Amino acid sequence: ATGHHIAAWRHPDAHVTAGIDIDHYIALARMAEAAKFDMVFCEDAAGLREANVNIASQTSRSIGFEPISLLSALAAQTERIGLVSTASTSYNEPYGLARMFASLDNLSGGRAG
């Protein structure tokens, strides 16, 4: 989602909190939309994204927004780009998932996937 090297946090210009900065995601979505991309994609994770505690403590990659909430926020800041996410069917009830994706689809004017 944020596209960075594991050691990028060392660079003085690195945006180390990009994974939890909504303005960063809005800027990425707007750039993708301006470049005529079809969609933005966010993956869901049922746990930490980094198992190594030493690495996790040095990067924002270990944490991030829940994808349906993030895409709902991006829907309000974009006009045409598709908003696509995965979701865990192991840890969510089917009705709940259907409701979340239907809400995103409604809020985005039919752009959810």
Number of helices: 4
What percent of the residues sit in helical stretches (DSSP H or I)? 25-40%
Number of domains: 1
Largest sheet: 2 strands, parallel
Number of E-state strands: 2
Strand content: 5-15%
Shape: flat
Low-confidence stretches: none
**Rg (CA only):** 15 Å
CA-CA gap between termini: 17 Å
Order of helices and strands: HEHHEH
Mean pLDDT: 86
Question: What spatial order of strands do you see in the largest sheet?
Answer: 1-2
Assign the structural class, choosing from mainly alpha, mainly beta, alpha/beta, alpha+beta, or little secondary structure.
mainly alpha
Describe the protein's architecture and organization.
- It is built from 4 helices and 2 strands, in the order αβααβα.
- By secondary structure, the chain is mainly alpha-helical.
- The chain has one domain (8-107).
- It has a two-stranded parallel sheet with strand order 1-2.
- α3 (67-75) packs parallel to α4 (94-107).
Write the layout of secondary structure elements.
Layout: H1 22-34, E1 39-42, H2 53-56, H3 67-75, E2 82-85, H4 94-107
Parallel strand pairs: 1-2
Helix pairs in contact: 3-4
